[in-house]
Amino acid sequence: MTGAQAVVAALEREGVETIFGYPGGAIMPLYDALYEHPVRHILVRHEAAAAFAASGYARTSGRTGVCCATSGPGATNLVTGLLDAMMDSVPLVAITGQVRSELMGTDGFQEADVCAITQAVTKRNMLVDHVDRIGETIAEAFALARAGRPGPVLVDIPNDVLKAQTDVTAAAMKPFARSGAGEPRVSDAAVRDAVARIRSARRPVAIIGGGVRAGAVDLYRMFVAMLGLPHTATINGLGAAAPGDPSYLGMLGMHGLKAANKAVQRADLILALGMRFDDRVTGKPDRFAREAVVVHADIDATEFNKIISADVALHGDLCHTLHALIDELAHGHVPRFDDWSAEARLLGGSLPSDRVGEGVLSATDALDRFFAALPPDAIITTDVGQHQMWAAQRARPAHPRKYATSAGLGAMGFGFPAAIGAAYANPGTPVYAIVGDGGFQMSLPELATLRRYDVPAKVVLIDNQNLGMVRQWQELFFSQRYSATNLADNPDFVAIARAYGIDAYAISEPSGADETIARFVASRGPALLHCACHPTENVWPMIPAGMTVDDLMEARA
Amino acid sequence: MTCELTLRDVRSVARIVNLAHRFNCRCTHVTANAGATVSARFAFDGAELALTRLRAQIDRIVAYETVPS
Q1: Read out DSSP for A121-164?
Q2: ipTM of this model?
Q3: Which residues, 6+ apart, have CB-to-CB distance to A105 below 8 Å?
Q4: CB neighbours of B61 closer than 8 A, spacing ≥ 6?
Q5: Cα–Cα distance for residue pair A207/A27, rounded to 1 Å
Q6: Are A14 and A47 in contact (CB under 8 A)?
Q7: Nearest CB partner across the interface for A147, out of B15, B57, B68
Q8: Using alpha carbons only, how large is chain B's radius of gyration in Å?
Q9: ∠ CA(A366), CA(A371), CA(A373), 5° rounding?
Q10: CA distance between the termini of chain B
């Protein structure tokens, strides 16, 4: 077989059913091998969308997402998606075509030093220099993407290697050498220390992060229920709380819920589980949870003491860590924190509103109505900006794999293609992308992908004719000098969707909105809901960057 | 801060030197001998916290050179 056929055979061996990509010269042999092959290739309209779709696929399924692109510009267009996956610990394998071996280093047509470019945005990258090594290299890439803290791995394959013949059949591919140390397992001593801290605490709060996606949801719910523990989530931890759990305080951080932020600030013990103290969570680190002892659990030792010092570090897989904590607790006194939990809930109150007058559609009103109509098993993806925060404040996903957003990188253009990936990973599950008018215009061409494959993903477009989050900061911190944020000349999105053959619905006032949303939700196949919203609604509450919950704002000054 | 590393991929030497820049540290010394593995020795200058973070990231690069068994 050829090298390209070996690539496809290696993908099959990894159980890959769907890949997202865009063809070009150097990678043509791979596309030839994919022609009429059972591994399904989804043609996106920009390579960035291939990476985001693969990420949406991985985030909502737990399987490794796969994207591919040609050399040079094709590969460089993947870079943002790779970094997004790196920041949010998403297992991804990117396969890129490279120019022929003899052209490498000559500034050949569509040549880029992709391995150098992607070193900082991948766990590792590999250049395959011989056709016989394709199988083992791809197997290693998948294993590394999934191992420990998941992340992206890139495999770059020159055109001549893809075309070369190999005698190494799929069945006989050499396994790669697993030479690394085993996965870390939390130490018994650290677990005993952590449990002693829990038993002596009076106001503990758990913070769950994206690490819960490592199959730890049930154990996490068991752990917090066992203690009656008030708990909060980072944006990547949304969905970890059991539906209806009264001890759950909502998301914390810059636009988090007041009760969550205040409880963390008053806590005497923080149980930080699979989270990394992002600056959007901590604000000013030296004033974050000043009275608290910190127990930090993570699979990546790099995260310990990076931002917040850990009094107890629990290094290991979160499933095993939670299991060990529950076991240790069960062997002795199990404290209950119901009274503190009830007190913590009262620290907040309802979300502050920035709605304007009767008859005007606000974004939060549109989202409240949408969430009320949403099927309970739905998957939500979001883009980046105000709508992302409004959605995060309101959404109560049933599981972390029901919610995907570009959290760490905050990459606009993520939400829509991620929904396409989520739809392929979860056939039969309703998928909705909540996007803003800025980010949607970075991913508009994917309407063609929706149409071509009749992908059952729907788009909720919160159109406030502004790059709203930047506009909000300009209003609050840049003397209302609205530089390059006004999008009042937006195109007719409904007409654009219909031009692509996508059903489109529109709401522009509260009256009749519920009926239109109900028809949109009930419709079959791809669809767009255009929500023409008031342009100056702000996201509240807000803790300004580098500040603390003491500086929390709930309205304009 | 100095560190002596055994690396699998010689490109990691360059990656580590670049990483120092990201952490606003300065690589003041680097030597590497590449054979079946790479023996590398680095020295860095910088603020204490930055050096701590740099060292943690270097450990991660080394860890990502292999797949856990």
Answers
A1: GSSEEEE--SGGGHHHHHHHHHHHHHSSS--EEEEEEEHHHHHS
A2: 0.96
A3: none
A4: B12, B15, B16, B19
A5: 44
A6: no
A7: B68
A8: 12
A9: 100
A10: 30
3-state DSSP assignment of residue A370? helix
Question: Which pLDDT does position A536 carry in this prediction?
Answer: 96
Angle at A158 between CA A155 and CA A163, to 5 degrees: 115
Q: Indicate the residue type of A453.
A: Y
User: Between the CA of residue A342 and those of A230, A338, A351, what are the distances in Å?
Assistant: 8, 6, 18
Q: How many CA atoms lie less than 13 Å away from A292 in the CB half-sphere?
A: 28
| A119, A120, A183 ranked by CB distance to B68: nearest | A183
Residues A332-380: pLDDT tens digits? 999 999 999 999 999 998 899 888 888 999 999 999 999 999 999 999 9
Percent pLDDT > 90 in chain A is 94
Among all chains, which residue has been given the structure tokens 């939700």? A521
- The single residue listed with the structure tokens 């031009």 is A499
Residue ranges of chain B whose CB lies within 8 Å of a chain A CB: 8-9, 11, 14-15, 18-19, 22, 52-53, 56-57, 59-60, 63-69
State pTM to two decimals: 0.97
pLDDT of residue A499: 98
Q: Are A157 and A5 in contact (CB under 8 A)?
A: no
* CB-CB contact of A184 with A317 (8 Å): yes
> Residue A339 is which amino acid?
D
